[in-house]
Write a structure and sequence with these properties.
mainly alpha; Helix Hairpins; rod-shaped
C-alpha cells in the first residue's frame, strides 16, 4: 500500500499558479527597473541641457539659440513628468503582482499543509497496521510455543 493523495492535482495546480505569479512579479519588477532607468536617463539629460543653457547664457549667443535650448529643457521637463507617471504605474503593477503572489503562496501552503496532514494520517494508519500484524505474528508464535 502506498500513499496517494486524492487532491494532488490541485496541489500541482496551486504550485503552477504560484510559479506563474512569481514570473509575473519578476516581469513587473523588470519593467519597473526599466522605467526607473528611463527616468534617470531623462533627469541626467535635463541636467546636462540645463548646464549647457547656463553656460550659453554667460556668453554672447543669439537669443533664438537660448530660446531653443530653453524649449528643449521644457520638453525634457514634460517627458520627466510623463516618465515619473510611468514609474508610478509600474510601481502599482509591482505591488499588485506582489499581492497576488502572496495570495498564491498562501493558497499553495494551505494545500501543502493539507497534504502533509493526510500523509501523517496515512503514516499513522500504516504503522498501526504493521503493529497489528506484528502483534498477530507474536501471538501466533506465543501460541505455538505454549503448545510445545
Amino acid at each position: 500500500m502506498r500513499f496517494r493523495y486524492p487532491f494532488q492535482k490541485i496541489v500541482d495546480l496551486k504550485s503552477g499558479e504560484k510559479s506563474m505569479a512569481e514570473w509575473a512579479y519578476a516581469a513587473a519588477l523588470g519593467e519597473l527597473h526599466a522605467e526607473e532607468e528611463r527616468l534617470a536617463r531623462l533627469v541626467r539629460e535635463r541636467e546636462e541641457a540645463a548646464g549647457r543653457l547656463e553656460e550659453e547664457v554667460s556668453r554672447p549667443v543669439p537669443l533664438a539659440r537660448l530660446r531653443q535650448m530653453e524649449a528643449y529643457v521644457l520638453v525634457l521637463d514634460s517627458r520627466i513628468r510623463s516618465q515619473t507617471e510611468a514609474v508610478r504605474r509600474a510601481e502599482e503593477v509591482v505591488r499588485e503582482r506582489l499581492r497576488r503572489l502572496a495570495d498564491k503562496m498562501v493558497d499553495e501552503k494551505v494545500w501543502l499543509n493539507q497534504r502533509e496532514k493526510a500523509w501523517e494520517r496515512f503514516r499513522l494508519e500504516w504503522n498501526r497496521m504493521e503493529q497489528k500484524e506484528l502483534d498477530d505474528l507474536a501471538a501466533v508464535k506465543a501460541a505455538r510455543a505454549a503448545r510445545v
